[in-house]
Write a structure and sequence with these properties.
Belongs to the bactofilin family. By secondary structure, this protein is mostly beta strands. The protein contains 1 helix and 13 strands, in the order βββββββββββββα. Strands 1, 2, 3, 4, 5, 6, 7, 8, 9, 10, 11, 12 and 13 form a 13-stranded parallel β-sheet that branches.
């Protein structure tokens, strides 16, 4: 059953397999197999509980309930819901991880697509203080 926040989105059903590039400008629910890349720069990507995705994904918001192997880039929020299993790096403005979600990778929280300058100077300042 699709999550309520994905209502009205285009969908890739659980019996569908796609290998290659998926691009679009509307919200998308993936509940099948996708291998390659998914690019929805101004839309929400929802990876459903039955999904098996091996792809680098880029979207405004990404909600994951299933399995993803690949890197995630979001200009907005990434939500790892209960039951999600992610192996890859996350770069986003906001990240939420629910209990029982599995995540293995690095996190880079950025604002407006750029890393804050303080993050690059802070470690040197701390070393000089000790």
């Amino acid at each position: 059953m699709p999550p309520s926040d994905a209502t009205g989105a285009a969908s890739i059903g659980k019996s569908v397999q796609i290998r290659g590039e998926v691009k679009g400008s509307e919200d998308l629910l993936v509940d099948g197999l996708v291998e390659g890349t998914i690019t929805l720069t101004e839309s929400r990507l929802t990876i459903g509980p039955n999904a098996r995705v091996k792809a680098n994904v880029s979207a405004r918001d990404v909600v994951i309930l299933g399995a993803l192997v690949g890197d995630i880039t979001a200009t907005g929020r990434v939500e790892l819901r209960s039951g999600a299993n992610i192996l890859g790096d996350v770069k986003a403005a906001r990240l939420s991880i629910e209990e029982n979600a599995i995540f293995s990778g690095k996190v880079d929280l950025v604002q407006n697509g750029a890393a804050p300058a303080a993050a690059t100077t802070q470690p040197g300042a701390l070393q000089g203080a000790s």
